[in-house]
Amino acid sequence: MNILAVTACPAGVAHTYMAKRALEKAAKEKGYKIKVETQGSMGIENELKEKEINKADVIIIAADTKIEKANRFMEKNVYEASVSSAVKNASKVIDSATEELA
Q: What is this structure's pTM?
């Protein structure tokens, strides 16, 4: 399973990066490949490239703020969750995304 994710919170500081780490850990435990883009106070980091987006099985957006996805993720399976959901239970977010969309 090839997963891409975008994390963002209104302040763009702690929760953005906590969600990133939680999703990476949960995906690794499940044997999934994941890349997480963060959109925070430092701007966009680890930006998802078009080639990666095209190869993704599932895209998870864990955000409590607006993320531009219309053009980037057209015709892709996109699962949306809150940042707090990803922080508190990243494994469940990944399971829900893969069960619902893959």
A: 0.92
